[in-house]
Amino acid sequence: MSQSYKILDFSPHLFWDVDKEKLNFNINKSQIIHQVLEYGLLQDWILISKIYGIATIAETAANFRQLEPKALSFIASLSGKSKKSFKCYSIKPLMPQHWNF
Q1: Collapsing DSSP states into helix, strand and coil, what is residue 45?
Q2: What is the per-residue pLDDT across 42-62, written as a single tens digit (0 to 9) for each?
Q3: CA–CA separation, 8 and 20 (whole Å)
Q4: What is the distance between the alpha carbons of residues 77 and 83, in angstroms, rounded to a whole number?
Q5: Where are the alpha helices (DSSP H) in the chain?
Q6: DSSP 3-state assignment of 17?
Q7: What is the pLDDT of residues 17-47, one digit of tens each?
Q8: What pLDDT is stored for residue 1 in this prediction?
Q9: Burial (CB count within 10 angstroms: exposed 0-12, middle 13-18, buried 19+), residue 48
Q10: Helix-helix angle 29-39:42-51, to 10 degrees
Q11: Spatial separation of the C-alpha atoms in residues 51 and 48, rounded to whole Å
């Protein structure tokens, strides 16, 4: 990471529920990646790919218990990993969501 990035470089809607100044790219890596995969815009995705790299993002996302199907397909396609290697593919939520888009 040659450039210094800040959490404020991301879209403001991603981290509306937390204190942005307390987020750390190393400590809160999983939370940042999850929010960007599920709710981020293209510029947010480009930013985390510069910060972490696709391999690290895929490795982190493989441990998520829940991930939107589109986000799962996106990261699986970019990383070249099978969807079956992601935990969220095989573990289904106990309470299914009301709407299925």
Answers
A1: helix
A2: 999 999 999 999 999 999 999
A3: 7
A4: 9
A5: 29-39, 42-51, 54-61, 69-79, 87-90
A6: coil
A7: 888 889 999 999 999 999 999 999 999 999 9
A8: 47
A9: buried
A10: 150
A11: 5
